[in-house]
Structures are given as C-alpha cells and as structure tokens.
Amino acid sequence: MADRALEELWDDTVARGAPFDARSVAHLPAPAQRYLRHAIAEGTPLAHAVRLVMHGEIKLGGAWSPFDAEQVIHAARGFVWRARVRMKGLPVRGSDRWVDGAGALDWRLLGVIPVARASGADVSRSAAGRAQAETIWLPSILTGVEWRARDDAHADVKVSIHGESGHVELGVDERGALREIVFDRWGDPEQKGTSSTFPFGGVIEDERTFEGFTIPSRVRVGWFFGTSRWDEGEFFRATIDHATYR
Hints:
About 15% of the residues lie in helices and about 50% in strands. By secondary structure, the protein is of the alpha+beta class. The chain has a single domain, classed as Clam (outer membrane lipoprotein receptor (LolB), chain A). The chain has a 13-stranded antiparallel β-sheet with strand order 6-5-4-3-2-1-13-12-11-10-9-8-7, with helices on both faces.
C-alpha cells in the first residue's frame, strides 16, 4: 500500500514551470530574498514535486534505530514517506503520509505484523504541519507566498498545501543558507492521550545541490525545539542522498 501511494503521488505531477528569476523575489524581506536566491539557481525551472532518497536514525521507544527511506513531496497534494527501520535487528516497514488533507501512518514488523497504525483528525493535523515545514526540500513552493521578517536572519513564511495553511520560521545565515526551522506543531509528544500544539523544529547541518536546488542534506529535528527540552524531544536525524525534481 505504501508503495502504491508513493508512486501514485509521484506520477501525479505536471511539467516543471517557468525558470526562476531572482528579480521575482526582490519585493520580499531581506532574509527571504537571500534564502530563495541561495536555494534556487537562476534559470532553474520551478518544480512541483521532489522525490528524496535518505538514510538516518529515528528514536523509537527511547532507542535510536537506523532507517532508509524514500519520500515524495507534492506541492498541491502533500507527501508520502516510505521507510524501512531496523528495530533490535528486525525490519519494520511502512509509511507516514498526508495526501489530499488526510493523514495516516501504517507500520508492520517484517512487512506483515501491525506495529503502529493511526489516522483521523489529530494525525491529519500533525501531518499537515510536517508537510508545510518540509517545503524546505521543495523551495519553489516558497517563491510566491507571504513572508514576514523577524530580523535580518529570521523570517516567517505562510505555507498552504491542499487548503491547509501554517506559518514556519526559517533561520538563514548571511549567504542565505538555511540553518534552522521552527514552528508550532500539533501532536502528543508527552503521550498523555490528548493533542495540542508544541514547539517543533530542528537544525540544518549541511546542504547539497540537486538539479539547481540547494537543499538541507543533513538535519536533526524533533519536539520542543528552542526549549530546555530539546534533548529529549529530538527523534529524527536524516541525510539526503539524492533528490529528483518534477
């Protein structure tokens, strides 16, 4: 099912758009201009989707487990993240997704035995926030949206995908390279059985250029970013190995 969902989302794309013109972002706040001109090379056809290949480690049950994964992010419809995680030496396969406004997760030991399955309003709301933040891997989405500068190194961007909107704060350096991301995400990181909004985000430790797009290539993310609880909230570390754009 995860395979079909990811491939269907990837196949449902249109041709890349007009070439990026740096003059088109001249009206934006300074940190937004620096970021977009750094992230998108002049003349790069703007993409509507990206397919990522990645590896890393994820914290499950208090322990870090290695994973390898593919992800498709679609500008109009959402994302599917399909992965294989090794927990105590055993493979767990499955996916997280938010497509056309509906979020779900489905994970199975040995690809057969259910380990975690969830859907519904809370899962969808949390996954929508993730989709909005992960536009850092598809920066063409961020060229025609609303930006507001906090200072010379930080700007809020309003991201809308499939009718769901949210604000994400990006921190950039003097070159425009992305250094951190933070936003309020819906979820239940304290596992109390009730969801609410909590600080979420992470740091960008490296970047790479693929097909004219310079994107984060090594990231660490999690709950409670920017607070004293970040050490306990961090749960995902990933390295992007390849990115293909459509």
